[in-house]
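Hi everyone,

Forwarding the result from last night's run.
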Amino acid sequence: MTAIRYSLLDIAEGAGVRSRWFTVVVLVAMATALPARAASVTVFAAASLKNALDAAVTAYEKQSGDTVRVSYGASSALARQIEAGAPADLFISADLRWMDYLQGRGLIQPRSRRNLLGNELVLVAPVASGVKIELAPGVDLRSHLQRGPLAMADPAAVPAGIYGKAALTRLGVWDSVKSKVARAADVRAALRLVARGEAPLGIVYRTDAAAEPKVEIAAVFPPDSYPPVIYPAALIASAKPDAARLFAFLSSPAARPYFEQQGFKVLF
């Protein structure tokens, strides 16, 4: 009987072990069958990138399954938000200055930094206005501002405004028009003033003019009248690892068409 009891105990214990192993196998199988956890990445980007970046991000989300949140605004305002601790993973500025600002404070990953895009500065007017201006030194720009202001991003801090002031200064007309300037929070806000007919002229990027059907280009600023418009990008120092995948996509041949279709000069 003793021998029989031990045999039955062994059988019972064996069944229990097999049962536990079966449970483990099932759990492992269930875990591997579940889809990988989708990542969530936050991008802070210059307002002028909106149309192109929205299209590129949509393509990336479909390909990766990740969720990308993009906050658009003036590069200056976004840089200060990052400095204050805003939870960004990737920053794309409309000029080198504000990227330098963050790098100098140790807030980006320097080795990730690269120049993504280039742009041009133009003067826009409401569509069908028929306004055409030759932007030569000493141009009489003020005579075109009798019915409203010159819309431009804040020249004290916002890249598009800084470029615009530099160009007007180089042409020798800043002093004659500065009192007529309507300082917008960012370049898209300046664009909207012209599109709504609230300003007869505005200084924006060529890509902004292409994105807004209610404006037309009245003039193109001479390239040597302002510093090159360059969009640098970099991972934030505290960026989630998943952000590197998005950054790699945005700087790859797959993303080029989205930027080129909006008129950007691709630098990668």
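Residues 117 and 266 are 5 Å apart (CA to CA).

Cheers,
N.
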